[in-house]
Please model this.
Amino acid sequence: MTIGELAALNNLKPSAIRFYEKARLLPAPTRRNGRRVYSFEADHQVALICFAKEIGFNLAEIRLFLHGFPQNTRPGARWSKLAGSKISELEESIAKERTMVRMLRGIMKCRCKTIEQCARALSGRKGRRPRSTT
Model:
């Protein structure tokens, strides 16, 4: 199949397919009359790439999934290894975002009369002593 056909099957632009080749996610296709010709297996690989991107994996993680395991490693074992790390990363991010939401809700209750008063109050919250203005 052509690059345009492969891209259309996956709702992508041909430039995305070329990018995945350059990023070593897809093997270089065979060429016929100077044009890329893809096997139907490439469609499955692009589908996996799109799915992995959709659930938050970056290009290095996707490359590891596709090419970083012994060839006989089952997909479930590959997903499990990568998903464990991604879940930890997401849980850390969620905790940070919850803290940010609490802080934003707190500053919505600000009763400071001046920016300087606000800055002094905030610097004290972080355990820092307000600097003298003299």
User: Anything to note?
Assistant: The first helix runs from residue 3 to 9.
